[in-house]
């Protein structure tokens, strides 16, 4: 799956109920592909190509790690602990991704 397809899947599998009252930006820096960010605001999700000026959290990984996490083959916490996934900003927000998106 291409990186663009992965982010389309994020949008398609968004759980608006879990995002009620939230105002967050998840920046994804994909080391070997295009960067994207997801804007979560009051039960809506918008995918945007490129970088955000002030993300809530930035997740840095390569496309293989992203695909593995989205497909369920790679555990996000395990990827973080092994250095395949790095986070900058409010790292606790990264744990909310599982609530906001049903990817598997």
TrEMBL record:
Domain of life of the source = Bacteria
Q: Which InterPro entries match?
A: SCP2_sterol-bd_dom (IPR003033), SCP2_sterol-bd_dom_sf (IPR036527)
Q: Where is the SCP2 domain?
A: 15-101
What range does the record give for the signal peptide?
Answer: none
Q: Name one Pfam family in it.
A: SCP2
* Entries under Gene3D superfamilies matching the protein: SCP2 sterol-binding domain
Database matches in PANTHER family:
SCP2 STEROL-BINDING DOMAIN-CONTAINING PROTEIN 1 (PTHR10094:SF25), STEROL CARRIER PROTEIN 2 SCP-2 FAMILY PROTEIN (PTHR10094)
Protein name, please? SCP2 sterol-binding domain-containing protein
Which lineage ranks, top first, belong to the organism behind this chain?
Bacteria, Pseudomonadati, Pseudomonadota, Gammaproteobacteria, Pseudomonadales
């Amino acid at each position: 799956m291409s990186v663009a397809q992965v982010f389309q899947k994020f949008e398609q599998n968004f759980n608006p109920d879990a995002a009620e009252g939230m105002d967050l930006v998840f920046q994804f820096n994909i080391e070997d592909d295009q960067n994207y960010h997801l804007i979560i605001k009051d039960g809506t999700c918008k995918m945007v190509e490129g970088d955000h000026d002030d993300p809530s959290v930035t997740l840095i990984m390569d496309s293989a790690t992203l695909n593995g996490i989205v497909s369920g083959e790679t555990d996000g916490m395990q990827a973080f602990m092994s250095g395949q996934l790095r986070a900058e900003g409010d790292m606790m927000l990264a744990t909310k991704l599982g609530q906001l998106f049903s990817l598997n």
